[in-house]
Each structure stands twice: as C-alpha cells, then as structure tokens.
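input
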Amino acid sequence: MLHVWNPVGGWWGEGEHKFFVDGEKFPSYMGTGSEDYFGYAWGAPMYFERPYHAQPLNQWNAGHIDDVRFQISDNVPFQTSFEGSIVKYSRNEGSVDPVAAYALYAAEAFWYLAPGGTDPYGEVPVEQRVGYWTPPRECHHEPGVLEAEWMPVVSYDWNSAMPHIEGTWDVKRLDLKWSNDKQLVWSASRAPGIDKLQLKFHVDKAGKYEIIAHLTKDAHYGIFQFAVDDQVLGKPVDLFNPTMIAADPIELGTAELQAGDHLFIVTLAGKNAAINGGGNEMGLGMDYLKLTPVGTAGL
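output
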C-alpha cells in the first residue's frame, strides 16, 4: 500500500518499482511507473476496487492518494532475501513553499505469516489511523452550480482527445479561481461542425432556464457552439486568449427543459485567426454550468 501526500498537486506517478531478489545487485523486476504498478495509468483519479488492486482514496491527485496492490497473481519467489523499492517522482517545483514542493510517500507491505510464526508489529491505535490529515488548502465552491468535472460524459468524437479533469495545481495557477479548484478539459481535433462533446445533467422541475457557463480562455482554445438537447444556445463563443484566464461567467442562452435528464452539447465551430501553427487540437475549458429558472433570482 502506498499513501501519497501531494499538497501542491501535479502528476506524481512515474516512479518505477524495483524488486531485488536473494541479494542481487541489479533488480529482477522493474516497472514503468507507480501508476502502472498499481493497475491503472494516465493519472486516473477515480476510486476503484478490484480483486488484486484498489484506489480507495484520491483527492484528484492533489492532496492524499491511497493505492493498494496484492502480488498474488504474479508473485515474486525468493529464498533468502527480498527488497522492494519505488522511486518517488515529483513535479511540484512550482510551489512557493519549499516543504510542500515535494510529494511525501508512506509505504506499507503486507505478507502471509507461516504457521506458528510471530507478528513483531502491534496494532496501531484507532486515534492514530483516522483524522490525521486535512485538505491541502481550502478551495472556493460556487453555490448552486453544476461542476463540469462531475458531469457524466455521454459521448465525444472518437478522433478527439478524451475529456479529462484539470486542476489549478496542474497549471501552477492557483489564481484562476475555478470552483472546486478544477475544470473539465476537452481537445477537439479541428473538425468544425463535427467534433462534439455531450455531457449529461438533470433538472428536477420543468421550466425555462437561463444557462450560464464559467469558461476558461487560453492560447490554444477554440471557438465552440453550445446547445441543450436540440436547442442551440446563442452564438459561438471564442475561447482564445494569449494567456490562460478564467473568463467572467457568460450567458449562453435560455432553454425550455422538462424534468429529468438532458444533454449539454459542445460543438467545435472553428478557431481564432490569431492561432498560427501549434498542435492539431482546439481546447475547451469549462469550470461549471449554472441553470437559473427564468423570472427568479437564482437557484
């Protein structure tokens, strides 16, 4: 079990594991990254539980992470000695706090004791096992909004990048003021009118709603058209800016919605003429949606 304390955030999981068997000088077993060893890849922050591995805790790679793996299906036999290590990998050099600039590791090993053996370790008291950590920092939560990073992804164009979550720690910009310190990021593949991202949301009461979005602008972000189900919301929105900024909330338009589930649809509409060269994708950054019933002060 590996417990990671990653106060600043950013990717931590490239440290390879090494197993030294029976006193060997060069390891018999070497890995490609700690996230690969624990059975997932690409910094997946979701919880999971499987027969031989699990991630019971992950604060979106910024804060505390717990990963567990059993070596049952691919055991490493040894006769006289075994030494296992995992490289601590950190990219937190953007921290202004020299102590918090590095992720901290706490590793724990489990083993099967032979019949008649004695366990040299006593049980750790409950008060030492709970309540020993706090969130890395308090973040702002905009009230009454749909956090884009929590909206279920229904579909996206197969030729575009998979939508993912980006935190203020990933871009080393704690001043961006994203609600919940996160945004949803999607990169379309420059096929205007074709590339689409569909997210699901729910409304409890039928009515006419004003749709407000908090979006991010950046030098490689594109122009996008927004819609709810088959209702187009206003004109395309240009998300280009020379530097990354959290734009002011924008009114996308209004939509008549029945109670139940709906689709929020994002379609690539083009790119700003100021974008020259660079990559082959146009980015979208969305912090949250806010649905306000028309004729009321808000949710």
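quick obs: Confidence is low (pLDDT under 50) at residues 94-100.
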